[in-house]
Amino acid sequence: MSYNIQAGIDTRYFHQYFTRGWRHVFPDAGRLPNLRRIADLVSQFDLVGLQELDAGSLRSGFVDQTAFLARTAEFPHWYSQTNRPLGRFAQHSNGFLSRIKAREVVEHRLPGRIPGRGALMLRFGPPEDELVLVLLHLALSQRARLDQLDYIAEHIIDAEHVIVMGDLNCHSRSPELKHLCARTDLREPLHDMLTYPSWRPARNIDHILVSPSLTVETAEVVDTAISDHLPITMTVSLPPALAGLNAPAALERSRLSQE
Predict the structure, then answer these.
(1) Residue 212 falls inside a structural domain
(2) Which of 1, 112, 233, 246: disulfide with 45, CB 3.0–4.6 Å?
């Protein structure tokens, strides 16, 4: 699953970006109940990439939302990346929840004129036949997105089994995604899966792309208006060398290496 959760904020109409915009700055009593609804949803999946979380600041009641969701949904492994730390006021982050222990997790800072975009790169299974998973939240400008996807392509171009997921802020047939797929052989099984806005989906900006070595059994958008985005999900069959991956019971947060 890939899901932009908008820091746990429930938005149902465009005017609420203005009338309830204060929730992006100050605490809101409805945030934790909404996070519990999100936890109940994501608990059905094995690998969950999340965008637009808060790592613990005034607006989230100093709750690390990745850790909260991991514990509430009973994920044994979780990884968090804070890309735009604004002190006590906001800690803009991406997060990853997993029932499979990653062999390695690397935090990448993506290029761009405006800093604050990052990627998590996770490696599962043996190095000789690994699964590489990349979680992204790309920039708003096309030029920046092209640069950011070029950067990612350089890091996955030699990998056989790859999944790239996230809020990519561009549609399936955009020049950015065509460029990435041409460089890496990644593919999106279904085009035009509309995820934004959640109350009347009209834009195809959330994606899960996979390499040809991975068999996609299902792909769908989940119709649940908790955030301002809808989550996108996919069922993927792993190659035989990775089929035995499993997760131990203990809850942990793995240390991130940085690049």
Answers:
(1) yes
(2) 1
Answer yes or no: is 249 within a domain. Answer: no
- Burial, 212: exposed, middle or buried (Cβ in 10 Å; 0-12, 13-18, 19+)? exposed
- C-alpha to C-alpha distance for 255 and 259, rounded to whole angstroms: 13
pTM metric for this prediction:
0.90
Count of structural domains, the chain: 1
What is the tens place of the pLDDT at every residue in 171-211?
999 999 999 999 999 999 988 899 999 999 999 999 999 99
Q: Which two tokens stand for residue 73?
A: 């949904």
Q: What percent of the chain has pLDDT over 90?
A: 69
- 98 pLDDT higher than 90: yes
Structural domain harbouring 166 = 2-244
Q: State the CATH number of the domain containing residue 135.
A: 3.60.10.10
Within a domain: 130 = yes
State which amino acid sits at residue 84.
R
- Structure token pair of residue 127: 């190095």
Distance of CA 36 to the CA centre of its chain: 18
Residue 20, in any domain of the structure: yes
